[in-house]
Amino acid sequence: MRVSFWEYLGNRHQQLFADALQHASAVLQCMVVATVIGVLIGVATYRSEWAGNFATLTTSGILTIPSLAMIGLLIPIVGLGVAPTVIALTLYGLLPIVRNSIVGLRGVDPSLVDAAKGIGMSRLTRLLKVELPLAWPPILTGIRVATQMLMGIAAIAAYASGPGLGNVIFRGLASLGSANALNQVLAGTVGIIILALLFDAAYVLIGRLTISRGIRA
């Protein structure tokens, strides 16, 4: 029986909420991994023009691979389910983080680094206490951009039996013409948009808590 969109949400709210939690969890976990890898790549390559360009070019190349093709290529290797989803999302999240890490670290005022060196800080200490904190604003921007991308790409994970709201969308698309197909597609799409807005609001709050007013200015 055909029902209105709001009635559909009321009848399926528990399942939709569970799918939304899975979607958010998958994106969050992949973003943590992508952030660690991306920042490490940025730290390893920002001092060299050639290495930085190579890292950016490589991660740009990954992003040009269609998401369906990426997941399809991973299925024979790692199987269906969570594994291809995690690998694909992590790879797709690298470019904004790597690029912004390199840009942020290269943008640190050399005089501040020299001052830190002058008071006896080691290279690692300078990186952790001076360079990375000053480069954090652009790095956080890269994380925000990557998260917004992955919110949409994660929906494709349903192709590989992955978790999230993509399953709702795919079920609706597979049954177009049936009573509530459009409600399914709309519910999954709206859910992803809401999650993206919530994540972005969280990043704004993180920025306010972790970036000093002097750096923001």
Automatic annotation (TrEMBL):
The chain crosses the membrane at residues 20-43, 50-71, 77-98, 150-173, 185-206. Residues 20-203 form the ABC transmembrane type-1 domain. The keyword Membrane applies. CDD domains: TM_PBP2 (cd06261). Pfam families: BPD_transp_1. It is a multi-pass membrane protein. Keywords: Membrane, Transmembrane, Transmembrane helix, Transport. InterPro entries: ABC_transp_perm/SBD, MetI-like, MetI-like_sf. PROSITE patterns: ABC_TM1 (PS50928). Belongs to the binding-protein-dependent transport system permease family. This is ABC transporter permease.
